Automatic annotation (TrEMBL):
It comes from Stenotrophobium rhamnosiphilum. GO terms for molecular function: oxidoreductase activity. This is Short-chain dehydrogenase. Belongs to the short-chain dehydrogenases/reductases (SDR) family. The keyword Methyltransferase does not apply. The lineage of its organism: Bacteria, Pseudomonadati, Pseudomonadota, Gammaproteobacteria, Nevskiales. Pfam families: adh_short. SUPFAM superfamilies: NAD(P)-binding Rossmann-fold domains (SSF51735). InterPro entries: NAD(P)-bd_dom_sf (IPR036291), SDR_fam (IPR002347), VLCFA-Steroid_DH (IPR051019). Keywords: Oxidoreductase.
Length: 274
């Protein structure tokens, strides 16, 4: 099958307004998929939509929504209930706060937990079921190198990204045999507008137009993800991170997942839900 036949006719990209999310939306459109563009800023999404439709001659649907709200998943599913979704990218959940845990109201952490974990689970449960029934499709869950270890200023964020990584690994174990590709895409330093803004606010760059030296580009991240889409469950989308983690973790995440899957099958038996 062609890419569009295997993963179409529609994709959902959460976080499609800029950075890696926008690069995903544009790249999937260039491969023939119609794209649901999801983020908070409607005006920005409308610009992305116009650009994609003009350049790639596919359909788009704009949904402006804050995924941190309690009913976000239900409202989104109502908006796309008439579409056949074959590709799901969850690229929402960056931490623009970057402050000590106790210096912000608890609601800030709770909101991040809901958006990065609860909504991801709810959407995955809804969207992956039909994919498994059809025997084709893909889900890409954006993680972060912060998920490998806790550190200051990212207490809740790092914890949610650890959840996202393990969730992607486990989902891959269950859905790969059913023909659905799941990829936990772990970002390192990536030259996005959000990172440029954060660095400028902290005096680490002279303007928000200044590229982040040594960081990967959003397009590199997307191209790398699609090149490893069928390999799963984890891909480190940063060259320096791939090298560095070899010293910290002699065994890759994918190797460990394979061992855990075999051990689980030996102890608990194979999946009985066919």
């Amino acid at each position: 099958m062609s890419f569009a036949e295997q993963y179409g006719p529609w994709a959902i990209v959460a976080g499609a307004s800029d950075g890696v999310g926008r690069a995903f939306a544009e790249t999937l459109a260039s491969r023939g998929l119609n794209v649901v563009l999801l983020a908070r800023r409607r005006e920005t999404l409308n610009d992305v939509s116009s650009s994609i439709e003009r350049q790639y001659k596919v359909q788009t649907r704009v949904i402006a929504m804050d995924l941190a709200t309690t009913d976000a998943a239900a409202r989104l599913m109502a908006e796309v209930n008439d579409l056949e979704i074959g590709f799901f990218v969850y690229c929402a959940g960056a931490d623009s706060n970057f402050k000590p845990f106790l210096s912000s109201p608890l609601e800030v952490a709770e909101s991040m937990l809901h958006r990065n974990c609860n909504v991801l689970m709810q959407l995955s449960h809804h969207l992956c079921g039909p994919m498994a029934t059809r025997g084709r499709g893909a889900t890409v869950i954006l993680g972060s190198g912060a998920g490998f270890s806790g550190t200051q200023n990212m207490v809740a964020y790092a914890a949610t990204k650890a959840f996202d990584m393990v969730f992607a690994e486990a989902l891959w174990c269950e859905l790969k045999p059913k023909g659905v590709n799941v990829l936990g895409l772990i970002l390192g330093e990536t030259d996005t507008p959000s990172l440029r803004k954060l660095r400028y606010e902290r005096g680490l760059s002279k303007s928000t137009d200044e590229p982040v030296k040594g960081a990967e580009t959003p397009q590199y991240v997307v191209d790398d993800a699609l090149a490893h889409l069928e390999k799963g469950p984890i891909r480190l989308a940063n060259k320096m991170m791939r090298v560095g983690l070899r010293f910290l973790y002699p065994f890759s995440r994918n190797f460990v997942v394979g061992l855990m899957a075999k051990a689980s099958e030996k102890i608990m038996g194979k999946d009985i839900a066919q």
